[in-house]
Amino acid sequence: MKHIDEIIERLSDYKEKLEKENRVLSYWENEFEKNPQEYVKDVLQKRFVSINKRKIQHRLLDDKNFIYSQGSFDRIIRWRDIPLYKNCYDYALYNNILTEIKPKTIFELGTGDGASSIWYRDILNVHSLECKINTYDLYKPVTMFDTISYFQCDLNNIENVVVDNCPHPWLIIEDCHVNLNGILKHFDNNMISGDYFVIEDVSAKKQKVITDFLKNEKYLIDTRYTDFFGFNNCSFADGVLKKI
User: Which of 6, 32, 90, 109 pairs as cysteine with 86 (C-beta 3.0–4.6 A)?
Assistant: First the structure.
């Protein structure tokens, strides 16, 4: 009965919101109306959950479609004509992440060609959101922009990344694929409630590090972003972590 009561409560709130917005139905909403039993799990999904509540399973999307989500052949997503290397799901989700979390400092760990950091800046500027953006990599990016702070360093030596005088909330984006355990511990020491990690390209190796880190019970997975397009249909599967 508890689940039934919860479904009724959530659907009542949802129906009221739909009627207030008076908008057309999305693909999902149309399918839910036809076959609610198939999609009821999405209704029951709580936003903030512990790692223990996440069943170890693959993302909803099959591997082949996920591979194509970054583009095929020479059709890679670009920003300011620089390769961005985001898949179509992350490309849509980061707008929500940035405008809803409203970070005051972004630490991007893994600058790459430099498209991501200026992409974040452009999104924030469109929404008149002020934010300090620091980006770190072993190598200089293809293009550098005046509004971004660039640091050339080895993130295996994460203790050299200075976090003093950086306003909160923080958004730490790990996209360097080295020393994840050290990175999580380094920033955790200085993070406050409401700060976020986003861990991209989560592999089995990364997932183990994340699972072990979350045993401290100081963070919850934000399923609004990991499951926005279905269970873990993004590069940061179970990797959007909010400090509580």
Answer: 90
Number of neighbours of residue 11 by Cβ within 10 angstroms = 14
Its pTM stands at: 0.94
List C-alpha distances in Å: 18 to 7, 21, 89, 242.
16, 5, 24, 28
Closest C-alpha among 133, 202, 200, 135 to residue 170: 133
Residues 6+ apart with CB under 8 A from 14: 43
User: pLDDT tens, 151-161?
Assistant: 999 999 999 99
Which residues have CB under 8 Å from 64's CB, separation 6+?
A: none
Torsion angle of C-alpha atoms 95, 184, 76, 148, degrees rounded to 10? 70
**Which domains can be identified in the chain, with CATH numbers?**
1-44 (no CATH), 50-243 (3.40.50.150)
Give the single-character DSSP code of 216.
G
Peptide bond before residue 169 is cis, with ω within 30 degrees of 0: yes
CA distances from 241 to 16, 29, 41, 96, 137 (A): 30, 27, 21, 15, 22
